[in-house]
Design brief:
The protein is mostly helical and about 160 residues long. It is built from eight helices and no strands. Helix content is about 75%, strand content about 0%.
Amino acid sequence: MLSARDRRDRHPEEGVVAELQGFAVDKAFLTSHKGILLETELALTLIIFICFTASISAYMAAALLEFFITLAFLFFYATQYYQRFDRLNWPCLDFLRCVSAIIIFLVVSFAAVTSRDGAAIAAFVFGIILVSIFAYDAFKIYRTEMAPGASQGDQQ
């Protein structure tokens, strides 16, 4: 950490750059497979939130909550900030995020389609697409990060 004296002696531009360097966005992650999945989940969650806001405002809290959770994971992964929290099992948290989103969007989507409103039907369609994307993401996380001895079973 820099002391107050060190901060005074440097130029103000250097201090801002040094403090913001911890939040530098990894552009390679944003174009990777996982980054594109998180961006797609974020965009579809925002679309579903808008559809629920236009039709059934009672269900918009679930979409908004998942939007903020996905945004937080995208921020942590894109800035490599998750590496500072080394005591957390990030693949497990990401897997649980996907599973909870699958359950929430399945329930909310099927409940919304009963209103027969145009925006609610659109939210149902986008919800089913989003559930399939979350299921694919959960499958990839489980297969690459959490599968017990997947590569050891092939060697025996």
